[in-house]
Each structure stands twice: as structure tokens, then as C-alpha cells.
Specification:
CATH architecture: 3-Layer(aba) Sandwich
Distance between the termini: 38 Å
Number of strands: 9
Number of domains: 1
Order of helices and strands: HHHEHEHEEHEEEHEE
Number of helices: 7
Length: 204
């Protein structure tokens, strides 16, 4: 099992229903938050990338799965996006970004890599820029089937009958706030309908 890459086949089944992006983008007020270069982590099929390219000077969109990048390139053809096949935990960022954005990715980061992930984000940000993210509410954990003896690995049976396992750590907003504060971030985590919406800036 690859802990950090979500396969295109899994993505098609698990994330087929697109959130209400109009309401969510309004809630995030991305038009004001963005402007300079943006790093999007785990871009998947480009569902969010196609909205980001209209709100940023340029977007670097990375994903660990080559098949995801191939799909995203078909969906998003804007001139101001660069797609990169890379694992964020090993990728040497070529520049610093004004904003880092990821949707439904934080819950795929295991606890053992959580601190290292946020350390990498700090190194990728220019100045005190924000990290913006969207993920599942804690209630979503009840919809998952966790492998016996594990609080992080879930198993899904897809429409074609195949079974896939991946990391899924759905974090409580209060616990996530404490974790990020302890790592030297200033987080603001709220709810928008079914989604957890967060922003974090490096503490001075």
C-alpha cells in the first residue's frame, strides 16, 4: 500500500461527488487570499486546480500519482499552471510560494509524518503566507472501514469489486488546532457544511 498516493481508480469512486465549490470558495474568500504563486498539494484530477488558476498568478500543482497528473492535465489547460509528479514529503520545492493549498489531503498524512509535513510547508512558504486546506469533518470516520487493529488504515471496495487500502486519519478540529499550535502555527479551523475548513500561518 502506498500511504501517500491515492490512485486514480480509488479517487474516481471515493471523490466522485464534487463539493459545492461556489459556496466553499466564497466562504474561504480565496479571491482575496490568493494573488501570488500558489502551491497545490495532492491536486488529484484537477478538481480544485481549475478554480485556483483563475485566482493566482501561477499554480504549481503536485501529486504523487502519475495517472492523477495525466487526468489533471486533460482537465486544466491554463497557461499559468505547472503540474509535477512528486511526493510532497521528498520533493525539494524549487521556490517559495505565497500560499499553499490542499483539499482532502491532510487526512491522508499519517501521524508519524504529521510534524515533518508541516515543517516542509513552513519551508515552502514565503514570509508569513497562509496554508489553506479543506477536509472531512470527524463524523466522516464512521463511514470508513478501518483495518482491524489500525486507527489509520481504511479499506474500500470499489465499484469494480477490487479492494484498496490507504491512510485516512480524520482529525478533530480542536485536536488539530492544538497540534498545529504546538508546532508553531497560528491555525483557524472552522466548519462549512460537511467540510472542515482551515487556515494556518507560521507563528512569528
Amino acid at each position: 500500500m502506498d500511504s501517500y498516493a491515492v490512485s486514480a481508480k480509488y479517487y474516481d469512486d471515493a471523490y466522485a461527488a464534487e463539493p459545492d465549490l461556489v459556496d466553499l470558495l466564497f466562504y474561504l474568500d480565496l479571491a482575496k487570499q490568493f494573488g501570488g504563486p500558489v502551491l497545490e498539494i495532492a491536486c488529484g484530477t484537477g478538481m480544485w486546480t481549475r478554480h485556483l488558476v483563475g485566482r493566482a498568478a501561477n499554480v504549481t500543482a503536485i501529486d504523487a500519482a502519475p495517472e492523477m497528473i495525466a487526468l489533471a492535465r486533460q482537465q486544466v489547460t491554463a497557461a499559468n499552471v505547472t503540474f509535477v509528479t512528486a511526493d510532497i514529503l521528498t520533493w525539494p520545492a524549487p521556490r517559495r510560494f505565497d500560499t499553499v493549498f490542499f483539499a482532502f489531503w491532510l487526512s491522508h498524512v499519517p501521524e508519524s509524518a504529521f510534524g515533518r509535513f508541516w515543517s516542509l510547508l513552513r519551508g515552502a512558504l514565503a514570509g508569513g503566507g497562509p496554508v489553506q486546506f479543506v477536509d472531512d469533518q470527524p463524523e466522516a470516520a464512521a463511514l470508513e472501514t478501518y483495518v482491524q487493529g489500525s486507527g489509520e488504515i481504511v479499506e474500500r471496495r470499489l465499484r469494480d469489486g477490487t479492494r484498496h487500502q490507504l491512510i485516512k486519519v480524520i482529525r478533530d478540529p480542536a485536536d488539530l488546532t492544538r497540534q498545529l499550535t504546538g508546532l508553531g502555527w497560528q491555525p483557524t479551523i472552522t466548519s462549512s457544511g460537511d467540510w472542515l475548513v482551515g487556515q494556518a500561518r507560521p507563528a512569528p
